[in-house]
Structures are given as C-alpha cells and as structure tokens.
Input
Amino acid sequence: MVPLNGEWTLLDYLEREKYPIILVTSSRLGSINHTLSALELASRRKIEVAAIIYNCLADTDRRIVLDSREVFGKYMKIYGYSGQVIDLLPLAVYEQTGKKPDFYKYFVLGER
Output
C-alpha cells in the first residue's frame, strides 16, 4: 500500500479505477504470508488478481517451490480468482533455451 499522497494509496487508486493486479512472489521466507495477505486484501477491496508470477529462484529447493505454488493456486480459487500461477524461471534457463516468457496478455486490460 504505497502512499500516493497524504490521503491516497496505490491500492485506493487501483480499487477506484478497477484495475486488475498481478502479484509477484517467490519461495523466500515470508512469501506465503505476504501473498495470501495480498490476495485477501485484494478480495476485500474487490480488486481482480489477473495472475501470480512465481519467481523461481535458482537456489531454492524444488519441494518448496512445488508446495508454495500449490498453496497459491488453491488460494486464488478460494478467493474466486481465475488467474494462473505462472513460473518465472531463472534467467539462465531462458538463455539456454532461447525462449522468453510472454506475460503480455496479463498486462493488457480486458484481455485475460
């Protein structure tokens, strides 16, 4: 909830304009708590969550990634969101394959 001025936060603005949001999370300590708190707050404010981008850090135990991804997907459904949890892989993976992630459709209003 970044303040925009003495009275408004970015969240207030997003709510008023009915803009969807994209949450970015990872497997770091506290990420599950922060992500679920953000989902609940968005739900209370009736702000659409278009997707969760999951930053897959190279040094993370794969079991933690799979478990937390599952939690995020479950809670997206619990809060009534149809958006996906999308993996953002380490840069080295994209360099090796020559493919780049395409998040465009999640950033274009009305095309989700």
Summary: The chain has a mean pLDDT of 90. Residues 62-78 form the longest helix (17 residues). Helices lie at 10-17, 31-44, 62-78, 91-97, 104-107. The domain at 19-107 is CATH 3.40.50 (Rossmann fold).
